[in-house]
């Protein structure tokens, strides 16, 4: 704290920016951790329930139990589009499908739209972590360079280059780089971790969309 109080105006501004980046990054890290953890947990439970259930209407009545899962959004969109297709064909039972592939294509498009929407939701705010990880070291380096310039300017004015004169200014300058690394390292690690988890969820959404369409097509072929 003594070093922070003794820094110049420019270095203080740099440190304030870096601390703000760090606080925002940790807020996002906590939020994304719980969001993605819930998405994974609810997706596992939803898939177990999905394959144990025999009817789409029974699944639709229970999707509120798995609100954190992106798969429930895909199911709702696909089931809703399937219901529109069945209603348009004049059939009362969603299991009674015509062989018109236009209806299946509509379901496929609905699943793709829902997948893209969920990917956007899951990736929200992660770009800030990438930005923090890539820019914080350079912002800290700027503060360090500026602090060293100020330190050497002070040496020139005093005319003394002893360790007692040089060391405090250099220490004040280097703290900017240290804070920059403190902000950047957790942000980079969290970003890579979340990107991996999101890729897993994207693969699950793609697999679920394929299985959902296969079920619809098998019903079509069976009629």
Automatic annotation (TrEMBL):
UniProt keyword annotations, A-Z: Cell cycle, Cell division, Cell inner membrane, Cell membrane, Membrane, Protein transport, Transmembrane, Transmembrane helix, Transport
Q: Name one Pfam family in it.
A: MotA_ExbB
Q: Which GO terms describe its cellular component?
A: plasma membrane
Presence of the UniProt keyword Metal-binding in the record: no
Principal subcellular localisation of the protein: membrane
Q: Where are the transmembrane segments?
A: 13-34, 128-149, 169-191
| Record membrane topology | Multi-pass membrane protein
**The UniProt record lists the keyword Chloroplast:** no
MotA/TolQ/ExbB proton channel domain location: 103-206
Which BP terms does GO give this entry? bacteriocin transport; cell division; protein import
Compartments, as annotated in UniProt: Cell membrane; Membrane
Q: Which family does it belong to?
A: Belongs to the exbB/tolQ family.
Protein's name according to its UniProt entry: Protein TolQ
């Amino acid at each position: 704290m003594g070093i922070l109080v003794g820094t110049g105006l420019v270095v203080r501004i740099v440190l304030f920016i870096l601390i703000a980046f760090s606080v925002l990054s940790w807020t996002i890290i906590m939020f994304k951790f719980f969001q993605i953890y819930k998405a994974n947990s609810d997706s596992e439970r939803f898939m177990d329930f999905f394959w144990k259930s025999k009817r789409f209407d029974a699944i639709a009545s229970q999707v509120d139990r798995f609100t954190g899962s992106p798969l429930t959004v895909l199911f709702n969109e696909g089931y809703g589009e399937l219901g529109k297709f069945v209603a348009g064909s004049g059939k009362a039972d969603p299991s009674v499908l015509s062989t018109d592939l236009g209806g299946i294509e509509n379901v496929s498009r609905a699943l793709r739209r829902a997948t893209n929407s969920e990917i956007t939701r899951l990736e929200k705010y992660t770009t800030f972590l990438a930005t923090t990880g890539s820019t914080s070291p350079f912002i800290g380096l700027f503060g360090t360079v500026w602090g060293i310039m100020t330190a050497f300017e002070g040496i020139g004015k005093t005319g003394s280059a002893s360790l007692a004169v040089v060391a405090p200014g250099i220490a004040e300058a280097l703290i900017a780089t240290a804070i920059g690394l403190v902000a950047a390292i957790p942000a980079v690690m969290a970003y890579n971790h979340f990107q991996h988890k999101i890729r897993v969820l994207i693969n699950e959404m793609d697999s679920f969309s394929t299985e959902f369409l296969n079920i619809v097509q098998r019903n079509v072929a069976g009629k």
